[in-house]
Design goal:
This protein is an alpha/beta fold and 612 residues long. It folds into three domains: 306 residues, Up-down Bundle (ABC transporter transmembrane region fold); 145 residues, P-loop containing nucleotide triphosphate hydrolases (Rossmann fold); 73 residues, P-loop containing nucleotide triphosphate hydrolases (Rossmann fold). 59% of the residues lie in helices and 8% in strands. The strands form two sheets. The protein has a six-stranded mixed beta sheet, with helices on both faces.
Length: 612
Amino acid sequence: MIRFLWAMRPYFRQVAGELLVGSVAGILMNTLVVLPAILLGRAIDAALAAGRGEAAAGAVGWAALAFVGGTLLTEGPRVFKRWFLITANARMRANLRADLLRGVLAWPMERLHQTAIGDLMARIVGDVETWGLGVRRFVIELWDTMLFTLSFVVAMLWVDAGLTLAVLSTTPLAMGLAYASGRWVRGRTTRARQANAAYTAALQEQLTGVRVLRLFGRAESAIAQIARLSRRQASANIASERLRVGLQPFYIILVTLGVIVLIWQGGERVLSGALTVGGFVAYLELYGRAVNRGFREVPRVINQVQASAAAYARLLSLLSPPLTMAGEPRFASFRPGHIVGLNGARDGATATGAAGPVAISLQHVSFRYPGAARLALDDLSLEVPAGALVAVTGPVGSGKSALARALLGVYPLEAGRILFDGRDPAIGYLPQEPFLFSGTVRENVLFGTGPADGVEQATTIAALQDDLRAFPSGLDTPIGEMGIRVSGGQRQRIALARAVAGFAPHRPGLLALDDPFSAVDVSVEAQMVANLQEAFGPLASPQQRATIVLCSHRLAAFPLADLVVVLEQGRIVERGTHAQLMAAGGLYARIFAAQRRVMSGPPITVGGGVEA
């Protein structure tokens, strides 16, 4: 437990200002908290003395006012303590979740493919809540319970040291039991969090595929699976709660055994005159509050922190190093709403890459998807001049998508290397299955980067203008989760606009487009190709041009390409210009001729150029 709290230092530093204010208020409150009990005892003694004629009636009034004043003095600091410590805990949870997301985003793609999204959600949401509860209990109870209890113990020692040592003799046994039960608490907490992760992962998968389940009539089987995992989760949570509740009677018995000693020894002291009636009442009040709020609570805090440590252990594999406060505004740690890293000072870390088109050299590249039996690219070598349009095609499974993903560098190569003429280019990528986020068209295109005016140009290049005019709110039209409210072709073109605008105000030096026309008709395809050529091709200024690698099974744009590459089983089987490959009469010529017969569309022209 000590090691766990020591590891939390970076998160405590991020909210150090709030912790300081809340702690000072907590110290003040829990130092003054003994006043009501002491002043109550004095008021009783004053009333008894007045009844015997040994004190004036005014003394009773002053004693009563002192009691009321002492009570009020404890309440003001309580408000400040609660506010600052609770908001500090909320900020710590937010900072931890940000570090978890940063860590997951930095994972290699292979690890992402092997981890269920639902499991990550369960950890980032549920485990962080468990962690936050333990940290909050520790931070708040450090003053509300531990200092509170210490204040009462000091006051009890001041009233009667011998009696205090006697009535508290069983308390160390309760604390020892709480610490010793940590192994059970950690084990059951871990099993409960694992069961929750399995349930969340299955639920997320079933909800994502709910349309498929209904279409194939598999709703009942999905419900049965969720019910089974829900029962397992409930059993694990009940086992964890049963342990927590089951330990409480032992803590209470051990702590409250002191009541017997208190009545026995305290009564003798009153009878012998060593302790006044008021003193005994004050002592009884001190002891009662120490037991009810202090000694019973400390073991629970210990167990909660142990559960928090178990949840944190499940988060360690996801975490990126916590951010420091360097570069944050002054007094940021005092601000209840401040999250580290969101003040804009770190925005410069967003990569924009070098401007202008980039030359690419693929040298004996072999690439395999994680866990795949065979290579997706096999000893592939290719030189792509800067600013060229390279069109790649081939049969299904030939390696087109693998080539686009290899260029991105998110997967490690099995062999060979890819060089970008000594630069780190900004790469715009349109995947074969584009993913959109819930939100508006504008938010998806800008993706949180770039100036707002860049979205107009990007949507024009993606041939979205006519669609946007038909949308109820244009660029600000919500598209739903994963773009469910727009068509497949619109999703594809929104993703293309995002690939173009993602590095605004700069242009991407390389555009890797994986099957960008699969969901659009021939006329829209012609417009998209013309727009891409006009924006990034020979007619654009040198700084605005880009190298384009177009991987597609639709070949209408291929006559415009500077180089056509044909893949089969991860190897290049043909390369050359469109005219050269048509003259050769090989695989490309056969595919192109077949598509021209099936798909009749308008010719593609660029700036009054030649028919494609």
